[in-house]
Amino acid sequence: MPTITKILIANRGEIALRIMRSAKEMGIQTVAVFSEADRTALHVRYADEAICIGPAPSNQSYLIGSKIIEACKQTGAQAIHPGYGFLSENAAFAREVKAAGLILIGPTPEAMEIMGNKLSAKAAALKYHIPMVPGTEEAITDINEAKERAVEVGFPILIKAAAGGGGKGMRIVEKVADFEEQMHLAVSEATSAFGDGSVFIERYVTSPRHIEIQVLGDTHGNIVHLFERECSVQRRHQKVIEEAPSSVLTPEIRERMGKCAVDVAKSVAYVGAGTVEFILDENLDFFFLEMNTRLQVEHPVTEMITGLDLVKEQIKIARGEALSFKQEDLKINGHAMELRVYAEDPLNNFLPDIGTLQTYTTPKGNGVRVDDGFEEGMEIPIYYDPMIAKLITYGKDRAEAIERMIRAIEEYDITGIQTTLSFGKFVMQHPAFTSGKFDTHFVGKYFNADSLKNDKEEEAMLAALTAVLLLQKEKVKIDGVAQSTQTESNWKRNRKDYI
User: Is the pLDDT of residue 114 over 90?
Assistant: First the structure.
């Protein structure tokens, strides 16, 4: 079996810290890489060793595979954990790592390549008869042919970039008259974002829920699923709130989705942690969407309901160990919620709000977990994703997980920048969310910046009134001199029972 005594984490911020903590518990040393903007970052201070790999822009530092491999050689690290984002799904980098005699804690380059393209991913999944959204199974370039196929599928339709993600190169077309213009826009956007203008067509599911299944596969051919996560609350096609399990899946649907996810992983002999994503329609019929060949941002909610440490499992798999459990050993315990705390202004279309964390106090207590990479006084760099932290809560059931999330949001104190905390509280208290009757259009349907503004104004008014009342209670003016109304000391009054 491969020996792993030192791991280089090819990432930054909260995910780098999260990986390092699990490695430390396993007695494995860690190496941090950092850009000039991250010189004083927490992950740099936490690691056993740290190496600067370039200027602040990621295309001059975190995205340069050769610099990361060279850092491994300098420090003697045998393995690289890519986290998520950056090079985590880059097949070319995975091949470079292998050629250098190093271990990538992740899937094979071949699996990355197939699942990294939505069309080849669909082709692989079709071998196992996985349900697909009606549409084309190949790239469409001819406008007239594409329009004919769109009419066959039936409007509304979705034009999607084959190499896409994050909503880029994606266009909803309501009627045939708009098709040509939207097709040109989708191809142009896909070319600009991914260097690949290939697009395909799918029927547009009007009320979709985004359900994903966590899978683990070892080098011995064992593949299991760790149940589902619901990721339907999104803004700009990006997840903001995730939970596990979903509030709408029946045990029967969960079992069928889990089997499909395992089959998708089998189609590429998957090794490591991965996520198979599905769309669930209003009839609770599900369709394969894509596979993410890495650890997901929202992996903590799965850890909370299964009791497993996914990073430790990834490392064990990379060492050649077989999974220590079977599918029948796994079960769902309780419910977990995750809020991505972004440095974004919900009142201004969720635009990034970069600045200094003047106040930064995290919530604590039973059932609360915070994965972050910042501390008070630090600046949120403009060069990277504006996520500050992941706030996770756990409860015996969904209601308790929601209640704890509301309490944790209220305890989380951040000043100096705008964050998505207030938006998270809005979601947790909204009847559509608490009832479980929501879909990926939640933000468009229910979120109103004005109502959030009103809530903030009410909170500020209450805080001001409370301060005034406290001041009046504590002091009165006597002949122009402030005197305390309290005639007995707090110490003495609170100890009467003991005196």
Answer: yes
The CA distance from 61 to 48, in Å, is: 20
pLDDT higher than 80, residue 164: no
Q: Return the SS3 of 208.
A: coil
Instruction: Give the sign of the dihedral formed by CA 490, CA 491, CA 496, CA 497.
Output: positive
**Residue the block writes with tokens 């100096």:** 416
* Number of alpha carbons in the 13 Å side-chain half-sphere of residue 13: 24
The superfamily CATH assigns to domain 134-203 is ATP-grasp fold, A domain (3.30.1490.20)
Q: Which CATH number fits domain 6-105: 3.40.50.20, 1.10.600.10, 3.40.50.300, 2.60.40.420?
A: 3.40.50.20
Cα–Cα distance, 346 to 233 (Å, whole number): 14
Q: What is the pTM of this model?
A: 0.87
Residue numbers annotated as active site: 294
What stretch(es) of the chain map to CATH 3.30.470.20?
Answer: 209-452
Cα(492)–Cα(128) distance, integer angstroms:
75
Q: Which residue ranges does the chain devote to CATH 3.40.50.20?
A: 6-105
Give residue 460's pLDDT: 57
- Answer whether CATH 3.10.290.10 is correct for domain 209-452: no
The contacts found for 444-451 with CB under 8 angstroms, 24 or more apart, are 447/346, 447/423, 449/346, 449/347, 449/348, 451/426
Task: Summarize the confidence of residues 237-252 as an average pLDDT.
Answer: 96
Average pLDDT of the residues of the chain? 91
pLDDT score at 496: 46
Half-sphere exposure of 491 (CA within 13 A, CB side): 0
